[in-house]
Design a protein that fits this description.
With 733 residues, this protein is mostly beta strands. The protein has one domain: TonB-dependent receptor, beta-barrel domain (Maltoporin, Chain A), CATH 2.40.170.20. It is 6% helix and 53% strand. The strands form 7 sheets. It has a 22-stranded antiparallel β-barrel. It has a 5-stranded mixed sheet with strand order 1-6-7-4-5. It has a two-stranded antiparallel sheet with strand order 2-3.
């Protein structure tokens, strides 16, 4: 095996993170470490340092500093990542990278353990499942040309979440915490690895009563259960070829009393945590099942093959208020004076029969496929090569089978007046079949690391619309078929100026495929970046400039964007440019002393605007003039953290500045009803280790109890999480 491959040994067998490094169990021996698994984006921090582009790896020690269960709070420390909170707990995150858009992560590639994890990654990426952050042991973010490797969505980048690995020896963890708003989180796992067999079993229970209050009473919390099992077989140490089989099984359910109905300006100012009576019945229930079989084999010392077969199944039904007498709830909240009667019914006044429509947003998804990566190490003269050839054959589907119920508001209570039959509101299926191939060579030649790569995507899309007259599937109204072929090149170069300083640059094609039945063209851009990376002893720093030059920016209508559009419709936005600077700095002032003082800083500056004028029915854009700023992209983002850690104790403080955002495209002064004000949020955590296995900890999120809005979509203002305290006990063995 080449030197490069040996440095990229995966972390899949390292024990999960305890509270801090001093409490870790003994590291497994080198013989116990699993070989390189190329399905994952990186596999180790060493690979990040060699990446010809901007990349970040948040390992288990960094995750353990604050032990967040909300992925938004985890990712705020990474420059170039944009987030829009929704319900305050990160259950349905909105993540974008380098201005890609933040609605339901539908403009980035999201993976778990290197496998596409959205319920239908090609047919419907803007869905409502995200891995439970409490059981994640590492986070990988890849930007620039490096994102070409993951695909299919290469405009912003790739996010890969690493699940708890099988430990190299018998080990386990039990973490129990409780806190504000009836919050409870219980997580436990146990695993072991022998000479040939290994296993891990993990479970998470998370719940809260919620922090909002419904007029007249009602539930606003959630319950989440997550279970995972991993089984492993590895060949004997004296086997001619090393082989490994991993079976991974997952099951996740969620029951959340959440709504899309926000608040008007005046109501938010009076009580930001209020919910109107019309949202009392809003509830989403989900179920996700995961099956995954992985195989690794070293064919020779310089050739290895990683293969994974996977299938996910996801069902969801979000029963929620859709409209009032045909008026969208966003239109009512935007202008409650004009729609005074409808607003009164939302807040509890008696309405006519059938005035309020609640929708069973019932959908079923599956995704399945097989992907393989062949790695070949060789040399040409003084240059060493690590060639990867990857193939993915994939199929997924979104099945919408929805109906509407009608209600009357009677003195603050919802009374059903009409019960819709299943399939009579939406009765359609979207299918996607994809074959993708990528080739990438990492060339080390003296002080240079060169990474040319090319990805090919062929996607067949089909949308079948059935009759909603009866809800049956015996009448096909229409079938729309389309095909997308795309070549996605990328090239990155890193120059190791000194042992501590690296200069890098990359260029690649940004690509986002359209959805089934879409009349929009694929989203395309040319993306550039140039940066410096420095690391010496306890100091690490990076500075990157980037430009994403869109030839066609695409907007997608989803339930979470709101507005009067058909779900799934896509809109061409033409020329746009997103450019900015990303900076990060980390240093430990006491790395070799009895008390360490780690500090970190990350900053993002963004300039994002349309480069053409047009009129769009996509509500976030509207009538666009050249130079208008893109919505939901703050100009400034800043994260700063400082900590102190002794032999048995730790204390960490983090602050986040989230700059002002527009909620609709525009320029100049931002109208009051089209902006989200800036905010500074502080989090603090402390822990005390009683002995080698037992720790007591506490955390306070939003320490200053700032009241702030997170968004205006899809309907009205939404509040962020108020001050929330948590205390917990953690036991490791």
């Amino acid at each position: 095996m080449s030197t490069l491959l040996r440095t990229a040994i995966a972390l899949a067998l390292l024990p999960a993170a305890p509270a801090f490094a001093a409490a870790e169990t003994a590291a497994p021996t080198e013989e116990a470490l699993v070989r390189l698994d190329r399905i994952n984006v990186f596999g180790s921090r060493d690979e990040v340092e060699k990446t010809a582009g901007s990349a970040h790896y948040i390992d288990k020690e960094e995750l353990a500093r604050f032990n967040y269960s909300d992925v938004h709070r985890v990712l705020r420390q990474v420059p170039g990542v944009y987030l829009v909170e929704e319900e305050g707990y990160g259950l349905r995150p909105n993540i974008g990278i380098r201005g890609s858009g933040t609605d339901r992560n539908n403009r980035i590639t999201v993976m778990e353990d290197g496998v596409l994890i959205a319920p239908a990654p090609y047919a419907a990426p803007a869905a409502y499942y995200f891995p439970t952050m409490a059981r994640i042991s590492g986070v990988e973010i890849k930007k620039g040309a490096a994102a070409v490797q993951a695909g299919p969505r290469t405009t912003g980048g790739a996010l890969n979440l690493l699940s708890t690995p099988i430990p190299g020896e018998t080990a386990g963890l039990l973490d129990l915490s409780m806190g504000s708003h009836g919050g409870v989180l219980a997580r436990g796992w146990a695993g072991t690895q022998g000479e040939n067999f290994g296993a891990l079993f993990e479970g998470v229970r998370q719940e809260s009563n919620g922090f909002k209050r419904i007029d007249g009473g009602g539930d606003t919390g959630f319950e989440l259960d997550d279970a995972m099992a991993k089984l492993r077989w590895t060949s004997s140490a004296n086997a001619q070829r090393f082989q490994q089989f991993d079976l991974k099984l997952g099951y996740n359910t969620q029951d959340s009393d959440e709504t899309y109905l926000g608040l008007t300006e005046d109501d938010f100012a009076a009580d930001p945590f209020r919910r109107y009576a019309a949202s009392r019945l809003d509830n989403i229930q989900t179920r996700q099942r995961l099956f995954e079989l992985r195989h690794l084999v070293e064919l020779t010392d310089n050739i290895d093959l990683s293969t994974v077969a996977y299938r996910t199944e996801f069902n969801r039904n979000w029963y929620k208020l859709n409209d009032v007498q045909g008026l969208s709830i966003s239109a009512i909240l935007d202008d409650p004076a004009t729609y005074a009667s409808q607003y009164a019914w939302l807040t509890g006044a008696t309405s006519p029969a059938n005035a309020l429509r609640l929708r069973n947003n019932n959908r079923a998804y599956y995704a399945q496929g097989i992907q393989s990566v062949l790695g070949v190490g060789f040399s040409t003269g003084e240059a060493t090569h690590d060639l990867e050839i990857g193939l993915r054959v994939h199929r997924d589907q979104e099945d919408r089978y929805q109906d509407d119920d009608r209600y009357q508001m009677v003195a603050g209570q919802l009374v059903r007046t009409s019960d819709g039959a299943p399939g009579t509101q939406e009765n359609r299926v979207g299918d996607a079949e994809a074959v993708s191939l990528y080739v990438q060579d990492t060339i080390e030649w003296g002080r240079w690391i060169l990474s040319p790569g090319l990805r090919y995507e062929r996607i067949d899309l089909t949308r079948t619309n059935y009759s909603t007259a009866t809800g049956l599937r015996d009448v096909v109204l229409s079938r729309n078929e389309s095909q997308v072929d795309a070549l996605i090149p990328g090239f990155g170069a890193t120059y190791l100026a000194t042992e501590d300083l690296a200069v890098f640059a990359s260029v690649h094609r940004g690509f986002n495929p359209p959805g089934p039945g879409s009349n929009a063209d694929p989203e395309e851009s040319v993306n550039f970046e140039f940066g410096l990376r420095y690391g010496r002893d306890a100091l690490a720093a990076e500075l990157v400039g980037f430009v994403n030059d869109y030839s066609n920016l695409v907007g997608t209508c989803t339930a979470s964007t709101g507005g009067n559009c058909n779900i799934g419709d896509q809109f061409d936005g033409g020329d746009a440019r997103v450019q900015g600077l990303e900076a990060s700095l980390a240093y430990d002032f006491g790395a070799d002393g009895p008390v360490s003082y780690p500090v970190s800083l990350s900053y993002t500056w963004t300039d994002a605007s349309f480069r053409n004028s047009f009129n769009s029915s996509f509500e976030e854009w509207g009538n666009v003039a050249s130079g208008d700023e893109l919505p939901y992209l703050p100009e400034h983002l800043l994260n700063a953290a400082i900590g102190m850690q002794g032999e048995r104790w730790r204390l960490n403080l983090a602050g986040n500045y989230i700059g002002r955002m527009r909620t609709e495209a525009g320029q100049g002064a931002v109208p009051a009803g089209e902006k989200i004000d800036s905010v500074v949020l502080w989090d603090v955590v402390a822990g005390y280790r009683v002995n080698d296995h037992f720790e007591i900890y506490g955390r306070v999120e939003n320490l200053a109890d700032e009241t702030y809005a997170t968004s205006r979509r899809p309907a009205g203002l939404r509040p962020g999480l108020p001050r929330t305290s948590t205390v917990g006990l953690r036991f490791t063995f």
